[in-house]
Design goal:
The chain is built from 8 helices and 2 strands; from the N terminus they run H-H-E-E-H-H-H-H-H-H. The protein has 241 residues and is mainly alpha-helical. It has one domain: Arp2/3 complex 21 kDa subunit ARPC3 (Orthogonal Bundle). The C terminus is likely disordered. Helices cover 74% and strands 3% of the residues.
Length: 241
């Protein structure tokens, strides 16, 4: 099986995942006295809000994707982190999936940097963000359960910082695995190209730190404000989260 066939197979599998994810992701156990209509409306409202934020960040120029030189910095990780902190791994996975799909569509219709071209492949745009959302939801759920009486906001801030760094590492890991030209470009032994690659890596490290710091500040702050302001967000913990 050649490389193009492998890529086509991965793309097909991803499309299947995208189609079936909503079918099992938001199935919640009904409890006595629950109003299914109210629960469904609340879920749809919450998801619509987060997807709308992701759409705005994606398609308003230089808002969610900020092109600087050959790379783009992103803010779309922020709604994913907040959704994972509020709701756990299921919605972390779903919002991560939306993050990846929107970045893929953005690259298809308007790539602005050299690296954006690589994100026209669905497996590079989607898979790292899918893993990022899933891991974020798991980490925040563990923090909620293990540190119920501790300084939860501090743990959330630390988790958001390192999860954002994980997102960047995952993206470039997939770029290196599936796009050899990116690996060759960043680690070329030619002095001039090597110097350019090192400069780009330094710039990416600075950008990653900025994204991570922003996530560390906003995620615990917004999670605390929203859970106090919106009663329906004060959910009961369950093993599924």
């Amino acid at each position: 099986m050649n490389e193009e066939n492998i890529r086509a197979l991965v793309s097909f599998i991803l499309c299947l995942v995208i189609l079936i994810t909503p079918m099992f992701l938001f199935r919640e156990k009904k409890e006595e006295g629950d109003d299914d209509r109210v629960s469904s409306v609340q879920s749809i409202t919450i998801d619509a809000f987060f997807v709308a934020i992701l759409l705005i960040l994606t398609f308003v120029p230089n808002l969610g994707f900020i092109a600087i030189g050959p790379v783009s910095l992103t803010l779309l990780h922020l709604p994913v982190l907040l959704g994972a902190a509020l709701f756990g791994w299921k919605r972390g996975l779903f919002y991560g999936l939306m993050f990846g799909m929107l970045s893929w569509i953005k690259a298809l219709i308007g790539a602005t940097t050299v690296l954006d071209v690589a994100f026209q492949h669905v497996y590079i745009a989607v898979l790292p963000r899918l893993l990022f959302g899933l891991v974020s939801g798991i980490v925040f759920s563990l923090i909620r359960k293990l540190h119920k009486k501790g300084p939860k906001s501090l743990y959330y801030a630390l988790a958001a910082f390192f999860l954002t760094c994980l997102h960047t590492v995952l993206v470039f890991l997939f770029l290196g695995l599936f796009e050899p030209w990116v690996r060759d470009w960043l680690f070329n032994p030619e002095p001039i190209i090597a110097g350019t690659g090192i400069s780009i890596l330094i710039f990416l490290s600075i950008g990653m730190s900025g994204e991570a710091l922003l996530g560390a500040i906003l995620t615990p702050a917004l999670e605390k404000v929203l859970t106090k302001a919106v009663p329906m967000l004060r959910r009961k913990e369950s093993p599924a989260n």
